[in-house]
Write a structure and sequence with these properties.
The complex is a heterodimer. By secondary structure, chain A is mostly beta strands. Chain A has no helices and eleven strands. In chain A, strand 4 and strand 5 form a beta hairpin. Chain B has no helices and eleven strands. In chain B, a hairpin with a 2-residue loop joins strand 5 and strand 6. The N and C termini of chain B lie far apart (about 35 Å). Classes of the chains: A mainly beta, B mainly beta.
Chain lengths: ~110, ~110
């Protein structure tokens, strides 16, 4: 079993739709969680950190469920520019290694 | 605003050749990592360093060596290139254990023939 797993998609949604991604992790002692965005043939960039109480940044909401060991990302009112691959990342206890999921591909169409 | 700089951007090698991928950061970050990205596999950690002189293996270290003689530089060496090492390689740095947001370089696209 991979340490961090994501549904690869692709998710094809119309503009204005709400879409949600989940990411599960296997190490219950993991301490920090992140969502990164990666555009085609570009490097990943941080979208948002995920806090225990959940957090929101504009149209994006991230949540953490430690009991079930998953994090989620909700995108409301999808824009064409949201088309990208979304990677979840989990930092192991001790803070030395960050493990990434394989990414979920999102296509937003007009 | 250099951030993390990787060179070269593209490289073609023949099987058995060796080469070094360069990575430098100017943010005084303690942590640096090398990842490879293959279709459907996501980013896989090759090696990482938590400071000058300290390195450790990640998920897929075989065939690669690293060293960290300075805070700024973290080169990745391919000792004897194999076609299985054809990939996109990303170097990343992060400030420390508390602020562990990863900042990535633009990547090196490597083909081994």
């Amino acid at each position: 079993r991979k340490e961090v797993e994501q549904d690869p998609g692709p998710f094809n949604v119309p503009e204005g739709a709400t879409v949600a991604f989940n990411c599960t992790y296997s190490n219950s002692a993991s301490q920090s969680f992140f969502w990164y965005r990666q555009d085609c043939r570009k490097e990943p960039k941080l979208l948002m950190s995920v806090y225990s109480s959940g957090n929101e940044d504009g149209r994006f909401t991230a949540q953490l469920n430690r009991a079930s060991q998953y994090i989620s990302l909700l995108i409301r009112d999808s824009k064409l520019s949201d088309s990208a691959t979304y990677l979840c990342a989990v930092m192991e206890t001790g803070g030395f290694k960050t493990i990434f999921g394989a990414g979920t591909r999102l296509f937003v169409k007009a | 605003n250099a951030g993390v700089t990787q060179t070269p951007k593209f490289q073609v090698l023949k099987t058995g050749q060796s080469m070094t991928l360069q990575c430098a950061q100017d943010m005084n970050h303690e942590y640096m990592s090398w990842y490879r990205q293959d279709p459907g596999m996501g980013l896989r950690l090759i090696h990482y360093s938590v400071g000058a002189g300290i390195t450790d293996q990640g998920e897929v270290p075989n065939g690669y060596n690293v060293s960290r003689s300075t805070t700024e530089d973290f080169p990745l060496r391919l000792l004897s290139a194999a076609p299985s090492q054809t990939s996109v390689y990303f170097c990343a740095s992060s400030k420390d254990r508390v602020e562990n947001i990863q900042y990535f370089g633009a990547g090196t696209r490597l083909s081994v023939l």
